[in-house]
Fold this sequence. Notes:
By secondary structure, the protein is an alpha+beta fold. The protein has 5 helices and 5 strands, in the order βαββββαααα.
Amino acid sequence: MLILKLVVCSHCKKQLRLHLGMVVMTKKFQYRVKRSTTNRFEAACIHNHCKWRIRATKLKNSDYFEVKRYDASHLCNELQNTGGDHRHASSWIIGHYIKSKFEGVGCNYRSKEIIADIHKLLGLNISYEKAWRARESAFDEIRGSPEESYAQLPSYCYMLEKKQSWNSYKN
């Protein structure tokens, strides 16, 4: 029997799905979303005979989701039969998982290395394309998207002009 520890409150549904996805990838089982609305999230183990379930609802006047029901008894180990392919190993969850590798200057973490690390850490086989998308997702999460960077250019140029005028006034 597998007992999972899960966070009681999560900031938003995406955070809840992220945390849940990381837990199930680590513990090597999969779940099926039963119901997902703006105010509710329900999921159960992919096997009908398994009792693992979670239900979370959105708190009033807030973006937080609270786990109302959590049956942690998990009796099956489904991934042993699937050859390591995992339905919840999405690129944005893997990107969140590997984003610490990109912090720092001049980091070069290639897709080939991501594939090897995910296989070593989680025992999952992911494609080159998924590793590439995870890499891009991690970059976006750490540094922001190119569109966000481009939108900041006018304020950056303004600050450069201010600094330039201050230096010429100072001399």
